[in-house]
Backbone:
């Protein structure tokens, strides 16, 4: 589709002022943005925005700023900033290995080995990867191997009882309200649990075909995490490669579609029972380390169902909330967000999404967001039941910027043209290296909210929200948002 550039008289004046180096007024900036929207012909989509100077609270641009939009992953800004306020940046998840028995002189643990979770989402491959954005580069078993060595240092050579998982710090459900059921097979839709291993995903590799191959081979890491029914074929010369995954039963995923032939492709699949996944993997690592296990394994289903008195064998603390937020925002990691939504609940056990939503809503109202400025459904933005306004997001961003932890939070956000979900965006504009913002992407939804510095060194908080935008309307709608941020980065008052 060809787009016509329609420039009104005000826009011509504003361009002329910028070209000659003179300053621009907020009205002229608004005309620039409106002209950009005209260029992209967004009349059938719904666009809202708010741009505020953090130096003097001046509103530089606003459009539909009090209207509701589906925020997609801009919801993670709400969850993350609320968690920083409620839990504090020094907060760590703690996982405890304990026993109801005793260690004998010959190295036998006469009792069960019990793993008590707090919902730690970091145990897995990403934590050992040199680049937190590349989970596939890490060793998913690294922490479990450390635990095996610590148990052996306690003299344990054999567990006579069962391996027991206690995930009851979190209550159900394990999927957020409004999540699309046909996404449940994919890693971005992994269930949430009080015990989580490798972000509750397994990595699926589909290698490039060998000569004569008809059915694409599939490789799963860790192997055995899921049962795969492989109905894939190879894409033909005129086909678009696309892999589809469907949950047929707990732990069983059917693969359909056409695999690419030019290179290996990598996908993440959700594991349906996180505590069982955790225990099965831990058991395998302990056995490989030379610790025999006589019993089976079991998952505690109800809080308080286990023994009242346990002896702690070891405790593992996650990295602090700064790391969690950095992964959640830069990679847009959904599981981390849903974990934080439950973690902010004040209850000791059985924390639910509803408990967390209550805390987040109280936080929003406490910083000045009106009661009708939001509808919170989940923590990640996967749910289409979430509704936010640009006004709400800018109030949130202003609060975070001025909070004692504000500078540290900004370091956790993706940087335009540099890293995270903005790595490939804004590279050719003044916004590159100068914008810290959270993306938001769902079908027909594109959002971008964060901070940018103008040519004068003025920091702006902005929220750009685009809903009901289809590929027939704009092929790459995120470009519209990036171009607007580029205008903000070029803005100069000329004072």
Residues:
């Amino acid at each position: 589709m060809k787009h016509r550039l329609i420039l009104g008289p005000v826009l011509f004046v504003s361009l002329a002022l910028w070209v000659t180096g003179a300053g621009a007024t907020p009205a002229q900036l608004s005309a620039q943005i409106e002209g950009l929207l005209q260029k992209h012909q967004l009349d059938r989509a719904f666009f809202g925005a708010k741009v505020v100077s953090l130096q003097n609270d001046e509103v530089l641009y606003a459009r539909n700023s009090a209207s509701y939009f589906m925020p997609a992953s801009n919801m993670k800004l709400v969850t993350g900033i609320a968690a920083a306020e409620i839990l504090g940046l020094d907060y760590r998840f703690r996982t405890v290995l304990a026993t109801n028995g005793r260690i004998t002189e010959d190295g036998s643990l006469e009792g069960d080995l019990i793993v008590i979770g707090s919902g730690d989402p970091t145990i897995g491959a990403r934590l050992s990867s040199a680049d937190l954005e590349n989970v596939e580069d890490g060793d998913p078993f690294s922490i479990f191997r450390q635990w095996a060595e610590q148990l052996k240092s306690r003299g344990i050579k054999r567990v006579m009882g069962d391996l027991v998982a206690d995930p009851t710090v979190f209550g159900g459900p394990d999927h957020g309200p409004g999540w699309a059921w046909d996404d449940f097979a994919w890693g971005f839709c992994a269930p949430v649990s009080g015990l989580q291993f490798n972000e509750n995903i397994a990595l699926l590799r589909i290698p490039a075909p060998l000569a004569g191959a008809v059915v694409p081979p599939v490789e799963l890491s860790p192997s055995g995490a899921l049962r795969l029914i492989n109905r894939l074929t190879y894409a033909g010369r005129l086909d678009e490669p696309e892999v589809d995954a469907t949950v047929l039963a707990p732990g069983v995923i059917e693969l359909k579609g056409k695999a690419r032939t030019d290179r290996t492709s990598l996908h993440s699949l959700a594991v349906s029972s996180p505590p069982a996944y955790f225990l099965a993997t831990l058991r395998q690592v302990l056995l490989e380390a030379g610790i025999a296990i006589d019993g089976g394994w079991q998952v505690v289903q109800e809080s308080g169902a286990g023994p009242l008195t346990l002896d702690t064998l070891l405790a593992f603390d996650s990295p602090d909330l700064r790391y969690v937020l950095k992964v959640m925002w830069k990679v847009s990691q959904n599981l981390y967000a849903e974990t934080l939504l439950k973690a902010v609940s004040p209850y000791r056990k059985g924390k639910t999404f509803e408990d967390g939503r209550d805390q987040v809503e109280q936080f929003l109202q406490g910083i000045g967001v009106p009661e009708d400025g939001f509808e919170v459904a989940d923590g990640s933005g996967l749910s289409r039941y979430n509704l936010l306004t640009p006004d709400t997001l800018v109030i949130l961003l202003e609060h975070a910027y001025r909070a004692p932890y504000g500078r540290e939070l900004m370091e956790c956000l993706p940087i335009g043209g540099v890293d995270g979900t903005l790595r490939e965006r804004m590279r050719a504009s003044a916004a590159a290296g100068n914008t810290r913002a959270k993306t938001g992407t769902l079908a027909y939804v594109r959002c971008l909210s964060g901070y940018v510095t103008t040519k004068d060194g003025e920091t702006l908080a902005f929220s750009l929200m685009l809903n009901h935008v289809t590929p027939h309307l704009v092929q790459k709608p995120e470009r519209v948002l990036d171009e607007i941020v580029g205008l903000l980065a070029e803005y100069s008052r000329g004072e």
About this structure: The chain has two domains: 9-88+348-490, 94-222+260-319.
